[in-house]
Amino acid sequence: MTHAHRSFVREILKVTEDPSIISFAGGLPNPKVFPVPAVARAAEKVLSEAGAASLQYAATEGFRPLREYIAARYARRGVKVSVDEILITNGSQQGLDLIAKALLDAGDAVLVERPTYLAAIQAFGLFEPRFVALPLEEDGVSPSAISDALSEHSPKLFYAIPNFQNPSGISWSAEKRTAAAALLERSDTVLVEDDPYGELRFKGVPLPPLGLAPDGSGPASWAVLLGTFSKTVAPGLRIGWLCARPDIMESVIVAKQAADLHSNGFAQRVLHRYVTDNDVDGHIAMIRRLYGRQRDLMVEMVKTLFPPEVSCTKPEGGMFLWMTLPEGMSSMDFFDRSIREKVAFVPGQAFFTDGCGANTLRLNFSNADEAMIEEGIRRLARVFAGMRSGAARAAEAKA
Amino acid sequence: MTHAHRSFVREILKVTEDPSIISFAGGLPNPKVFPVPAVARAAEKVLSEAGAASLQYAATEGFRPLREYIAARYARRGVKVSVDEILITNGSQQGLDLIAKALLDAGDAVLVERPTYLAAIQAFGLFEPRFVALPLEEDGVSPSAISDALSEHSPKLFYAIPNFQNPSGISWSAEKRTAAAALLERSDTVLVEDDPYGELRFKGVPLPPLGLAPDGSGPASWAVLLGTFSKTVAPGLRIGWLCARPDIMESVIVAKQAADLHSNGFAQRVLHRYVTDNDVDGHIAMIRRLYGRQRDLMVEMVKTLFPPEVSCTKPEGGMFLWMTLPEGMSSMDFFDRSIREKVAFVPGQAFFTDGCGANTLRLNFSNADEAMIEEGIRRLARVFAGMRSGAARAAEAKA
């Protein structure tokens, strides 16, 4: 299964390398939001001020001023985190690998949302756990499903993306967060709370992390929080972080040191310089407005051009819509036909560990510009209509 | 054992963070060789020319022009490698982690040189192999030791650093390379050939890699070659590479994708710009001259100030000397006393998987400037003399 996932995703990425294809497949930010001149100024400043120190080997934990900045940002959200509870990683993806390496043994159970983030299945999958997928409802995973899974499987990890989940766009409600936290508090399971999209909220009020300590301060003893600058600044710098209590952190740092000694020190300093010298909140607000408009456009186009039996989420933030075709239709088939019309998306099956989701698909709305979104959804709707009338004709012929 | 290694090294690194300490402990390049202004020009050019593309998500395999450059550099040494046989990693350290993840199962045997590189023990150690250490003679590991180990342990991997090994400074002779290659060719063991120091040769003629295909072209089907820009350009960029045939490469790429999607794209482009726009060979020649002088000075100081029963290697390149104290003396004890005099090194025991080497130690000669080398070795000799006379007095008192 995991192997099939890998080759499938690589196939899709290969297909979408063709620049003539309108791709809603990847999870890429829109490159026009990357602060190129500001990063250039930051790089220049780092090299002229810190000089050789910025190119030397550095601490495994990461560049301390950057870790302080991350702690201060948590504090603004009311989450009190000490600098020692933060490790810099190569994007939040590496957080998954390090946690798996530090905590997972072959055969351990890992709870995931259903559907869940593909590359998490890949990262954990290399350590050969048993995946147990808990259905994602409109507002998160139900407490009874979590409770049953905890007692039945004694899982080592529970992996969740409570804000604007990839692939579904779903966010957990405050009630479901509180209920899940109460259950995890009493279990030996470690929550891995991934939050790459939390800052990309178009409306509504942000909720605190699920994995908070009971007194509401730092991460809970049973939680690891992951974060990243990939969606708020730029993914090419590969800078994310992992936040955990000292006992978990200790083994994660050992894994990080073994993995690559430390993350790119130059990029860490450039990023730190960038966030220090620029209006980051203003920058993120600009990204929110842009992606919000792109989401509105894509949702509107889908509503207008697809028949009502095709449903589509309208998430309050993030980068993805989740579309459900009528029961019995295959999104793989839809993909094959769409790619001939030079439009790509990810068939939903890739996000399930149990082969389900054959009639679902994920659409990214952040990467393509508005004109491309219009044209791409138009083509998809045309392909869909063709599939439907073909199916109708086939049914008639049979009858 | 592995756990002891970890905490030990972190302890040492913590101690050496004190700027008043003369440290021969780390494996750090001398920061004065980092091409800071040239890297600044490269960064400026990348951002003004490639712009947002340099900050976007990128291919797992790495930035293709940089991979082409690496292939061309191999070609100059007579090793024909295709671009698809090269994967960019976060320093060569990550190559160890990816290989272990792709190929190692718990309980597999891993051959290592004795002594061997500490962080390789750490990287492989997380996957719980059995280490089998083969004594490193003056010119490599003896064919009979390799042959016996191959048939007795059917190891999955053989990890070796044939040029200016860390920690010993030893290089393999042409005879021992040829003999090892012939044995590995007939086995199912994969050679992991680490070569961080090969370009830092002060005299003599470079030898081709041990893990070459029989026709002398690319890597052998049973070999993985690791390389890095950490010692020739700068370690802070965290850019190394892994070179292997497609069947091994395939599973390594899957592991890389799961680990962190891809290496820092901005740093890869900056490095590529740097090597394209600058006289890299001239730069490396400058490093060679500097480190060669520093080695000469350190060897000379040791010879002059220590008694003849203390032996010390004089490697033809690299960054390390390996010192052997008289039998029965403890380099841990020597370390504890030296640190009080504010000089650090790494006690040799850390580089053994079997607890041996209690009277050995590693001295780095690349990082400290000449004045520091003189002063540091002077202090070490004084501490050593004190230990000896203390031991003599204790023996007298006993008698």
Multimeric state: homodimer
Helical segment count of chain A: 12
Q: How is the biggest beta sheet of chain A arranged?
A: 7 strands, mixed
Widest beta sheet: strand line-up of chain A: 2-8-7-6-5-3-4
Name the largest protein-protein interface in this structure: A-B, 59 and 59 residues
Number of domains of chain A: 2
CATH architecture classification name of the largest domain in chain A: 3-Layer(aba) Sandwich
Helix and strand element order of chain A: HEHHEHEHEHEHEEEHHHEEHEEEH
Say how many strands of chain A there are.
Answer: 13
Helix content of chain A: 40-55%
Give the low-confidence spans of chain A.
Answer: none
Give the averaged pLDDT of chain A, no decimals: 94
Molecular shape of chain A: globular
What is the beta-strand fraction of chain A?
Answer: 5-15%
CATH homologous superfamily assignment of the largest domain in chain A? Type I PLP-dependent aspartate aminotransferase-like (Major domain)
**Amino- and carboxy-terminal Cα gap of chain A:** 37 Å
Taking all Cα atoms into account, the compactness measure Rg of chain A is 21 Å
User: Given this structure, which CATH class of the largest domain in chain A is correct?
Assistant: Alpha Beta
Secondary-structure class of chain A: alpha/beta
Say what the CATH topology of the largest domain in chain A is. Aspartate Aminotransferase, domain 2
